[in-house]
Amino acid sequence: MAFEVVFDEKVKKLGFELGLEEDDRPHVSGVKPGGAAIALGVRAGDILVTINGAPVGKPSREEIKALLKVRPLTLQSAPESWLDEFFMTAFFRRAATATNSGEQFFSFRKGCKRRLRERNKHLVLESGAEVSDSGSESDGQAWNIQQSVPKTRQTFVKLRIVTMRVRVSCDASAGSLRFLLRVPRELELVADFVRHLHLRLPQQATSLVLRVGGFALLPTLRLTDVLRDDDEVCVTVTGSDERPPIQSSVPMAALPDSAAPVAPAEKRRPKDAGNEDVPTPAAPAPSKARKEKQKPKVALVTSKQAAAEARQVLARSRQPSEEPQDEDMQQARSVNHPLLGELEVPPGQRTEEFVNRKLRTLKKAIRRQ
C-alpha cells in the first residue's frame, strides 16, 4: 500500500525546532499516488496526524521525527492494462516500418518491463528508501510509510485505514453522554449498529432511535449509504410502549373534520349522554297503498278461457289501431290446411294466427306422446 504525506507550513517550521537537517526536512508532494493519504498538521498548537481525513490522534515527539524524515514518493507501479497499452503504442511507433512487428512485440515488452523495474529501483534508492539486495519486485514498490513508524503506532494506523469513527451524543433520556465510537466493518445495516451501540450504553434502554442531521435512520438501511466518517449521531431512548411522535407539517387543529381520527363507538357514547332523554324519531312505516304500488302485478290465469282472452288482447295490442278490421273477421270462416285438414276460424280472429296456434298445440301434443 502506498501513501502520500502532506505537510503544512507550520510543520515545515517544526523541523528546525526538532533539530532536523536541511535534507531531512519534509516537502509537499504534488502527485497523489494510490492508497491512503496521511496528513501531518498543526491544530490549536497540537500536532495531529490524519489518515484519509480522519484524525488519528496526537503523536509523540519520536513519531513526529519519523514522519518528518519520510519523503512522499510520487513514483507508482502502473497496472498491467496500462502498461500493455503503453508498450503497444511505443513499440508500433518504433517498428511502424518493420514487416514482422507482431512477432517481436512480446520480447520488446519483456525488455521494457525489465528496464522500467531497474529504473524504479534506482529512483527508490535515491529517495532514501531501504531496498534489500534480494531484488524482489515488492522492493521496487513505493516506500511504505509505516516502516518508519513504531510498531505500537503501526497497528493503530492500520485500524484507522479500514474503519470509520463517529461522534455519538445522547440526550437526557440516554444519560446525556458524548463519546467517540468506532464502527466495525462487519456491521452492514443500521439495526446492527443500534445493537452494537446498545451494548455500550451504561443503562439498559428498551429502544434506540438514531438521527443524523435531524433525520432518523431507518433500521433497514445500509450504514454505508447513510453514515459517513466523523458524523454526529444523536441517540434517543424510547420505551417499548411508546411510539415516536409523527412529524407532520400540518397541525391537527388545521385539519378538517373529515381528516380527524374517528373514535370507537364506546368513546363517543359519553359525549351524547346529555341527549339520551330526547327520543330519536323512528322512520315512518310505509302505508298499505304504497306497499301495493311497490308489489309487482302478477296476472293469475285460472282457466283456458281466460288464457284465450289474454292472447286476444295481446294480439289486438300488437296490430295497429288505425288499421280497419276486415269484414271477413266478423264472420266464421272455414280453412283447408294440408296438415290440420279443414278448420273453422271463429269470428274476430285472423286466419294465420289461428292456424299457427293450432300448429303449436299439435307440436305440444306430439311431444307429450
Automatic annotation (TrEMBL):
Name of the featured protein: PDZ domain-containing protein
Pfam families per UniProt: PDZ
Regions of compositional bias (Basic and acidic residues) in chain numbering: 265-274
Superkingdom of origin: Eukaryota
PDZ domain: residues covered: 4-69
UniProt xrefs under InterPro entries: PDZ, PDZ_sf
Residue segments, region Disordered: 238-350
Database matches in SMART domains: PDZ
Transmembrane segments: none
Gene3D superfamilies attached to this UniProt entry: 2.30.42.10
